[in-house]
Structure formats: structure tokens, C-alpha cells
Amino acid sequence: GLVTMARNLTADGIFARTALLEVDDTLQGIRTGLEILHGVFFHPNIVYLPVMPDMDERALQFVLDHAVENEMGVILFARHPVAGMGREKLVNVWIREQSPDWEVGLRLSNLDLNLLLGYQLVRNWQGQMTLITLVSDESEKQKGEAFLSTLIEYGRMPRSTRAVVEVARLDDYLPRAPQADLHIFGLQERVDMKFMERMVAATGASCIFVRSSGHESALA
After folding, report:
1. What is the number of other CB atoms lying within 10 angstroms of the CB of residue 87?
2. N or C: fewer beta carbons within 10 Å in the chain?
3. Residue 58 CA to chain centroid, in angstroms?
4. What is the pLDDT of residues 40-71, one digit of tens each?
């Protein structure tokens, strides 16, 4: 259980604590838990939840809203039922088009946690990361390539990191996208279960949907 997991993490030199909160209403319990944890000295900065096909979208939205309210990042993990985590080698990080500015700074628009997760995973897996951006117009492609190149340089990412910029819509591009064992997408303000399910099916791999807390910095 949780106690055993925490004990194993502690044995590996990772600070870990567990707590059991008995509640009549799950959503209210989550809200209470987030508010309590935000007040402790070593408060967590990320809420992680596995996404199940039968989960209530409203419940996920509730968690997202209150995590953001408590300045926590959110990671929703949608596991592919067959592929699982694959060979644990290749990670694709999908980055939205940043036009018209394409500005790289210490605070990136809901990108920092995505990049940090991708970086840590490929370090742990000794794998390779690919940054992918899709643009709507050919005139933006060169700007996108320069943006990703700067991210890789300033973020001190592994030399093996690839950058891909294509003029395409997401659904049209997915069948020819670089294969990966895990895909990392940004999570917008509104949870969309159908979109998450579609991405898992279209990529044939597990997907993570991430919302930064605003306190992370991939370039610091």
C-alpha cells in the first residue's frame, strides 16, 4: 500500500510521507486535501492522477481547478491498454504554436513542467526526446524551428534531443508523427476526456497531459 511505497522511496533517499483522509464525498475530500497540503512546510507542487475511461470529466475538472487555485501543477496520465510504457526509450513533447511572438523566456506559457518531465524521463530511461510543434502557416515554420532550437540550447537538454516543426493540423499529422513510448501534451483550462482518449488511440502509446503551476522554469 501507500505506507510500503513511501518506505521504499525513503530507502532510495527520497523524502516521502503518507496520509489517509476519510471523507463521505471524494471531490470534497480532494479539495480539503489540496488545501491542507498547500499549508504544510514541504508542500507538494504537483497533483498526479491516472485517467481511467470511466472517470467523470467534471471530477477531473474539479481537481484541475483546485490544483491551480493552490498553485500546484497537474499531471494526468492516460495509459495505453496494450502498449503501456513501451520500451521506455522515446518521449515526444508536443509544444503548441507560439506565434506571433515565439519568445523564449524564464517563464514559458504552460510549457515548463512539460519540458522538465520530458527531460527527467529521458535521463531516467537513457532515451531520446523529440520536441514537436505544428504551425498553421509555412511562414511560421522557420520561427518555430528557431524557437525549438533556442529551447534546447537554453534548457541544456541532451544533445540527442530532436526538434520537429511541421505545417499541419494535429489530427492530420498524428499518423506520421515520430513514434514514441510516451507523448506529453499540454493541458488546457478545460479538461477534455474525449481528446485524451483520442490522443492515446491515435498515437498508439500512453500519454501525459500536463498543466504547469507557474512556478517551474525549464530554463532556470
Report:
1. 10
2. N
3. 20
4. 766 778 888 888 888 888 888 988 888 888 88
Q: What integer is the mean pLDDT of 94-103?
A: 85
Q: Helix H segments across the chain?
A: 2-11, 26-38, 57-69, 112-125, 141-154, 170-173, 193-203
Q: pTM, whole model, 2 decimals?
A: 0.88
Spatial CB neighbours of 45, under 8 Å, sequence gap ≥ 6: 71, 72, 73, 213, 215, 216
Please provide residue 9's backbone torsions phi and psi, each rounded to the nearest 5 degrees: -65, -40
In terms of Cα–Cα distance, which of 133, 136, 184 is closest to 162? 133
Q: How far apart are CA 27 and CA 59, in angstroms?
A: 7
* Cα gap 3→60, rounded to integer Å: 25
Q: Which of 95, 99, 114 minimizes the C-alpha distance to 165?
A: 95
AA letter at 85 = M
Cβ(121)–Cβ(91) below 8 Å: yes
Q: Cα separation of 82 and 146, whole Å?
A: 37
Q: Span 206-219, mean pLDDT?
A: 78
Q: How far apart are CA 17 and CA 10, in angstroms?
A: 9
For residues 95 and 46, give the distance between their C-alpha atoms in angstroms, rounded to a whole number: 20
Instruction: Give the torsion sign (CA, 208, 211, 215, 216).
Output: positive
CA separation for the pair 52, 36 (Å, rounded): 26
